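Q: Got a minute? One more chain.
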Amino acid sequence: MRTPIAFFLVVSALLFTIGTVGVLVRRNALVIFMSIELQLNAVNLTLIAFSRQLGEVNGQVLAFFSMVVAAAEVVVGLAIIVAIFRRRVSANVDDINLLRW
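A: Always. Here it is, folded:
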């Protein structure tokens, strides 16, 4: 018995909504960063669900490359956030003024 695609799309929509709310409401740079990653994972889930439904691997390959780019983004983004936190002792995005030191 296969799980219907609607289940995956509902879960993906919930994950994307939670990520969007996290980006819009929170002011901590780490929480915003995690919310963006949650949105990327929701999109990857949608790609894989449609790929499975259509019986092709194109969506799975695209999701794989998206995860590779997201991993590189995490490395660079966390390095920037850690550098700002060390300098300012705060990860609040309201305290950061165009990255001027």
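A: Residues 15 and 34 are 12 Å apart (CA to CA).
Q: Perfect, thanks.
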